[in-house]
Amino acid sequence: MEFGIMSVSDITRDPTTGYTPSEAERIDATVQIAKKAEEVGFDVFAIGEHHNPPFFSSSPTTLLAYVAAQTTTLKMSTSTTLITTNDPVRVAEEYAMLQHLTKGRLDIMLGRGNTAPVYPWFGKDIRSSLPMALENYNLLHRLWTEDVVDYEGNFRTPLQGFTSTPRPLDDVAPFVWHGSIRTPEIAEQAAFYGDGFFANHIFWPKGHYKRLVEFYRQRFEHYHGNKKQAIVGLGGQAYVAKKSQDAWNEFRPYFNEAPVYGGGPSLESFAETTPLSVGSPQEIIDKTLGFHDEFGDYQRQAFLVDHAGLPLKTVLNQLDLLGEEVLPALRKELAARRDPETPDTPSHASRVKEKYGDEEPRQPRPNANRGDNVTGGSPYQDSPAKKGSAFGL
User: Fold this and answer.
1) pLDDT of residue 263
2) Fold of domain 2-362
3) Which contiguous run of DSSP H or E holds residue 118?
């Protein structure tokens, strides 16, 4: 089981002080949170992608590259990379480059996000979001697994003899999670490709997510023969303090005024009916073990701990408690419960081993025979450059 910290990158007023951090302060705080997460024993740090206030993370690869340069074991990930409004060619390039820079400490979570206006900002139609997500990932998968791609689809211009560069590290693509809270087609696609499925698992009752996860596992078994080999991740917000009542009292004003919570059910009601975990270390342990009771073995648990205006000092204190008291207990108990057939989360090393065995992995090098990215033509047919056009002068 991997444990991670995920951030949605919101910049929210602290309701207890009235202070709203600047973008610079919040970005710097997020880097400190990621470094602290590694220090206290977390396995993964993930950042979301947003292109509107009050969020700052419009360029996850830049932030993750910076964090990776200051850490040694922490795996970089996203939560989420928008597979709809991003060009799959650009996603292939940027995350392959990040995979090289992190020396394989990278995976990626793809999703459609939850901000409707982002579609026209990038010239897209939200009414096509689902077929666009499915088609864009089909192309991304090919760009990472095929040296030369010819492509024609509905949502971008065609490609002829195109080679995405850099090629993935060791010619093995980053592991992909497909994030969804409502769409069986996304779970189906994750199962078809043998990728991971990540249930946000924050806002809705667990029964909602359980249906999607079980559907993914059933379809995984259909395509690959054993649903126990399916790779599942869960999210969940947590607020922890040494004493249970302190946790409830401290978190209440943040919950009451949070943009996504405020004005709805009470804190107690929301925590009772959703995965939100509030309380002492033991209460966080018990609630997380309850996720295992419902979902069975899964490979990644990501906690949201820096949301709703919580100040940096409070977040770092939570990370200390989670690292010192919660993670060791969860690792021990979940290891004891684990089915021997349950695989670990795929790592770069395990994926290289799966592809090459004991052989040395292939290291792609520039090769003019792969494709013609200058003209967009195929090396196996006459291109404008070969005919003496201006491109060939």
Assistant:
1) 74
2) TIM Barrel (3.20.20)
3) helix 118-121
